[in-house]
Amino acid sequence: MKLPISRRNFLKGSAILLGSLAIAKGGLKSDIFTFAEQNDKKIDKTAEIYTTCGICENHCAVKAYVKEGVLERLEGVPEDQASGGKLCAKGHFGVKMLYDPDRLKYPLKRTNPKKGFNQDPGWVKISWEEAYDIIASKVNEAIEKYGPQSIVNIGHRVFKNLMKAIGSPNIISHTSTCYATSLLTQRVLTGKTWCPDLFNSKYILSFGWDQAGKGKNVFARGFAEAKRKGAKIVVFDPRLSTTASLADLWIPIKPGTDLAVALAMINTIVNEELYDKEFIKENCYGFDKICRLVQKYTPEWAEEKSEVPAKTIESIARDFATIKPACIPVWKRGGGGPMRKNATRLTHAIIILMSITGNIGKRGGWIPRVIKLGRVSPVKTPPPPVTQNRIDGREYFPLANCGPYQSIPHQLLHDEPYHTEVIFFTRASLLSFMQPKLLGKALESKFVVNLNIYLDELSYFSDIMLPESTYLERSGVVPRTTYTLFPQVSVMQPVVGRLFDTRSAEEIEYEIAKRIEMRKIKVEATPEKPKPTQPSPVVEEAC
Q1: pTM check: above 0.85
Q2: What is the SS3 assignment for 43?
Q3: Is 470 helix (H, G, I), strand (E, B) or coil?
Q4: Strand, helix or coil at 162?
Q5: DSSP-based three-state secondary structure for 76
Q6: Quick one: the chain helix, strand, coil %, rounded to 5?
Q7: Which range (259-273, 380-394, 427-441, 487-501) has the least confidence?
Q8: Does CATH number 2.20.25.90 belong to domain 7-103+472-492?
Q9: Which residue, 112, 258, 303, 437, has most beta carbons within 10 Å?
Q10: Is 3.40.50.10800 the CATH number for 194-368?
């Protein structure tokens, strides 16, 4: 799909975004290694400073009001297309996070070798130089003894360049427990990922989607705007969520049976010939197979499964097919999220519903999630080749480009498929894992580096704590990935000086990399492609 973007509108939009986020006197240095200088710059005592929110992937433009060197409040930027001049509750909370007295203020080293929830780590304050030296020494030792694959980065991929430089494949994120289900299925079936255009939708159908209640800025605003314009809203959800409470029709469906209803809706639309013939002719193939497949999934069959009356399913299907444009939002932990066994199939059915009604690639339906910019890489020398598989079994999920995050505790504990020695946790939480106690046990024998702004539960099993600067104290350039109607890059800059002895992730990664003995890393001239290893019981079950 190509949205109508004229050169004039594109330049105007770009000017608004980048102009509103223009860097204060001195300009933003383009070299990533000068971020330290940028982060340490002196802030005017009284100023209005533009930056980017770092709480979530929405990356809303922010105006910070600073008085006498103190951040007083944060506001949205009206000219910002993606955020619409608004901030969610978390965005406003940034002030309290910045001045939180419980923040991690300087690097810490563990002195008690025993790890556990009931153990006092015996933290002692150390300098950044000592922290870097200790970490680099452990990494060098692990690479020499076990190979680069023994180094693992879990959490946000902020150390991915370091991992690639040493030749480790283990850049592990939580994607499989987040929105991998929806994004993967969309990419496989349509070739790209999509974002719901709630602002312009006239009919919104939700299978457990509750972003209106969770407050994701762009979705909450889009939902509110659609409702204000009179869009019809229908919600399938076992509980009366915030979104359901605002809907025109709430159906308390039996948990886990959304797929049955979606298939029955396809059945109704196909048999009553309510589908968009022109869209299907131009964009789809295999429609005849779908028509044959769904014949057994009647509304009556779905009623037995879901306890939703067949007449209700038929009525919703007719409305969805005839009220244009219509939209089924899918995001993270809705009915198409990763928390149910049939979540992928539900997302598949939702894509079929959106396709046969001609609501993909249209305003008010689904629009491209990301309009990509060109990429310029500063790396001139290719990194060492990766000759080992990832510990999360990623090779068994080639289309997903990730393995099951929930398998990590088991893999680390049993050293599968090989031994791991140094674990970098970057903005990751112990409690986000399915089996936190098992993960804790696995980490008792590992050297753990924890990049965080707090002493969290993971600190009980960490050897080094590295305090990261908040997004209000650091610089960066952030590509937009949610509801971007044109390619966008947002600038992040400090609104106050560093309050404590903290560093940005980029600075930390660079300093550690400088100390790692790259020359000792074995590089094969013509490496073979990693072959699938024997899967562990956890990965095998996930397959």
Answers
A1: no
A2: coil
A3: coil
A4: helix
A5: strand
A6: 40, 15, 45
A7: 380-394
A8: yes
A9: 258
A10: no
